[in-house]
Amino acid sequence: MDSSAKLLQNYMQNTGKQRKINNKKSNEIQREKKIDGKAQRVVQRSTMSG
After folding, report:
1. pTM value > 0.70
2. How far, in whole angstroms, is CA 32 from its chain's centroid?
3. Alpha carbon distances (Å) from 30 to 5, 22, 25
4. Where are the alpha helices (H) located in the chain, listed in sequence order?
5. Neighbouring C-beta atoms of residue 3, cutoff 10 Å
6. Disordered: where is this region (predicted)?
7. Which positions ≥6 away from 9 have C-beta within 8 Å?
8. pLDDT score recorded for residue 44
9. pLDDT at position 1 over 70
10. I need a labelling partner for 43 at 20 to 30 A (CA). Which of 2, 5, 11, 26 fits?
11. 34-39: long-range pairs with CB below 8 Å, 24+
12. What is the distance between the alpha carbons of residues 31 and 9, in angstroms, rounded to a whole number?
């Protein structure tokens, strides 16, 4: 295998890893947004009733 092909393979592996990490991060962000939304709704409900 010549060096350019090896570099390309390394690059593809690294970008694949990075994509997985990014997916994980965006999933966590989505989950946090959901939790925030729920918390805000609860707060609104309690302030309206009080």
Report:
1. no
2. 10
3. 37, 12, 9
4. 3-49
5. 7
6. 14-50
7. 1
8. 85
9. no
10. 26
11. none
12. 33
Length of the chain: 50
Whole-Å CA distances, 36 to 26, 27, 31 = 15, 14, 9
Residue 14 tokens, joined: 């690294």
* Residue labelled with tokens 């991060």: 25
Residue with tokens 């729920």: 38
Phi, psi dihedral angles at 2 (to 5 degrees):
-80, 165
**Residue 48, both tokens:** 């309206």
pLDDT digits (tens, 9 = 90+) for 25-50: 999 999 999 999 998 888 888 877 76
